[in-house]
Amino acid sequence: MCHKREVAEGFPLFQEIQETFMLQGLMQDRPLLISSLIEHAAKFHPDTEIVSRLPEGHVHRTTWKGICTLSRQVAQAMQVLGVQQGDRVGTLAWNSYRHLALYYGVSGCGAVLHTVNPRLFPEQIDYIVNHAEDQVLFFDLTFAPLVAQLAPSLKTVKTFVAMTDRAHMPDIGVPNVLCFDDLMASQSTEYTWPEFDERSASSLCYTSGTTGNPKGVLYSHRSTLLHTLMELAPDTFGISSAETLMLIVPMFHANAWGAPYAAAMVGAKLVLPGPHLDGESVFNLLKQERVTFSQGVPTVWMMLFQYLDANPHLDPKALGVKRVGIGGAAVARGMLERFENQFGAEVVQGWGMTETSPIGVISKLLPKHANVPAEDLIKTKLKQGRGVWGVDLKIVDENGQALPWDGVAFGHLHVRGPWIASGYFRREGGEVLDDEGYFPTGDVATIDPDGFLQLVDRAKDVIKSGGEWISSIDVENTTNSHPGVAESAVIGVAHPKWQERPLLLVVRRAGVQLEAKDVMDYLSTRIAKWWLPDDIVFVDALPHTATGKLLKTKLRELYRDYRLPTA
After folding, report:
1. Choice among 378-392, 439-453, 454-468 with the minimum mean pLDDT
2. Does residue 355 carry a catalytic annotation?
3. Is 464 noted as a catalytic residue in this protein?
4. Count of H helices and E strands in the chain?
5. Is 62 a catalytic residue?
6. What is the pLDDT of residues 58-73, one digit of tens each?
7. How high is the mean pLDDT of the chain?
8. Do 32 and 222 touch, CB atoms closer than 8 A?
9. pTM for the complete prediction?
10. CA gap 463, 177 in Å, rounded
11. Burial class of residue 278, CB neighbours in 10 A (0-12, 13-18, 19+)
12. Domains and CATH numbers, the chain
């Protein structure tokens, strides 16, 4: 018989007693460590292929067992090079089997893998390598000239390792550059992975912000494995052992969307294209390896489309690609429909950032959408997606007050969860979380009653006209759906009456005759009248950030003094 306990719950002692005697579960307490992923892949999927097109030009083939062996050699090499637990090890590298082995070997031994974005400006790379205090820097042949330029100013780097074989070693004038293949060949293939706190740092990636110095996001083993588990869910990317995954998203950016870890957890075949991202190379690799799922940013897919446009005899449907993951920028309607209609592929759109590991939301439909009319359904498909377990969302007004999820209210997007950054490396930027522990993303968004998030703009890019907000993203997506448009950008330009009005910059598709009136007529039936641009300018190209996003700061600088015809 149970007896009611009468305790003075108002006393602080009660809480202390309650915590002391809280019943513990009888489960094994094994740390969530990245090394467990590669050992699992080697044990249960030893013969599954890892295919790499290397900077040297040829295709290399190995297996998950081979990657595990190489990862152990990497871990051994860290000891030889004097790398201690917690030390940072940098990479300037494309997607390849060597980089994959570093993912596991460096983090697995307790060091921190710092994936450096080579598309940053040299002065930014100089800054982040020194800021991270990298002890070793691994680099692909492509970046040998860059390393030669930067080496004298990289104060903490003791060892440089060229990621190639002896026959291709570069002569860059940097003393004692080691050869990756030689270094690994001299290491034992036997290694016992250490166990340590799962909250220990595993990897480091710096943001590619458009203003100020990049800031470091420091991931943990725990956050990485929790993120990986969610990546396998059918309502996210649904990666399984039956998949052949071509990872076009660079491994130097935001954990390559977690794909290197997810592929190991389920033993999927992994195809790594290296620096060969032109349309022809991507098409051929998709075809040769019978890729079922590929992940990339819109700029890469646009290059693939351009290649197909120039070669109309090629049939995209014959590739057999079933799904395409797109992130980094909003998906235009034309791109989504082309993948669906010409490739027969499902588009899985997502939103995230370096600070979210990166999964934030994923665009997967609900059962209720099965009978939704096509035109209404496309509107849902073009939203960035709905929240997944592990990511809490809220939108707030200028005063920090929560806004309703009605699909109408615009607000600043805040997120929290076990794989969301709590701050930046070395406390750059100070405290960043709000009073409820949410991270402010810098995005403006709406959330509908089904939890589907749609980005309206970056907070710094939103156009404020007459006290109302205009979504540059919506205008750009609509413009990009015009068959004659390759790319577009919308920025706010000063206006004496309305504060700001939109200026539309358009890149014509190659060989297409397109005039401003054509674009304006197209937009006039698809967006709100007061969202229509006050002027349209055709340009040869648009500037992008290191990760392929439109560089709006540069555009605003270039057109700062532009006089609109309505002004």
Report:
1. 454-468
2. yes
3. yes
4. 16, 25
5. no
6. 999 999 999 999 999 9
7. 92
8. yes
9. 0.85
10. 50
11. middle
12. 461-558 (3.30.300.30)
